[in-house]
Hints:
The protein is of the alpha/beta class. The chain is 27% helix and 32% strand.
Amino acid sequence: xxxxxxxxxxxxxxxxxxxxxxxxxxxxxxxxxxxxxxxxxxxxxxxxxxxxxxxxxxxxxxxxxxxxxxxxxxxxxxxxxxxxxxxxxxxxxxxxxxxxxxxxxxxxxxxxxxxxxxxxxxxxxxxxxxxxxxxxxxxxxxxxxxxxxxxxxxxxxxxxxxxxxxxxxxxxxxxxxxxxxxxxxxxxxxxxxxxxxxxxxxxxxxxxxxxxxxxxxxxxxxxxxxxxxxxxxxxxxxxxxxxxxxxxxxxxxxxxxxxxxxxxxxxxxxxxxxxxxxxxxxxxxxxxxxxxxxxxxxxxxxxxxxxxxxxxxxxxxxxxxxxxxxxxxxxxxxxxxxxxxxxxxxxxxxxxxxxxx
Length: 357
């Protein structure tokens, strides 16, 4: 029996879905198992971010070759790639935003934000053949946001906390990115920036980023890393304050699309890297700036701080803004021997300098 291996942990659970064994640690989520009932067996199929790439992998294991896996998240792309290798299946996930090409079926996990769903649904409609379909896996039926792009929107399966929608008769108009414009004014630097749905803080600076930008000392002519850059505000301000080179990295291609737009609009240059791994950058830095995501297990933050300790030049500084500082205090003391702390509006800016000559 053909097998698909999901490399999501050490546990072992096997599900047999229409003749395909799928091994994973926690089992295939029921909505994604149910989706296999509706996947076509012909035509060009785009899997745009199914759980662990399971839709594309199931199709490949079933002997159906005309399927691609793409997404804007480098994390999801890496998961799907690892699973394909473990399953000995030919699948080469690639980053994509906006959605491009011409497809008969697009499979998509519905994003949480309403505006992000509208943005992606419009792109899906523009890239489908006239008789094509969009299969959406959602937490709940959300037909109203979709009817502007698909006259036919029908729930085809539901379960506890999920629904699968089939959207047909795509209108096919060219999708236009729904840019939002905002203005910031900090430290004598005024910028007009473009953001997209799904970006972090798309309507205006959050208080943590504001604290970071108000307090961080940018090395004149130095090499700066904007880690988790979003739409690029931190790196762009650093450039305006005298940084010699700025590198921008984010795991979200939607964020990098906005970042690239903003860098170009302000006549700046910078290297943009699409990755969830800071080690994807090259060389060392004089300053590393970050407002990291908050995770209970601190795994992302541990990777970031240990990277900073290795990749800072001597006398270089790392700045990180957080809400719960205790773990970060201890980790920075361990790595750097000391730190500085500024608190404002419930946010803490922690900074540390790499010692040495």
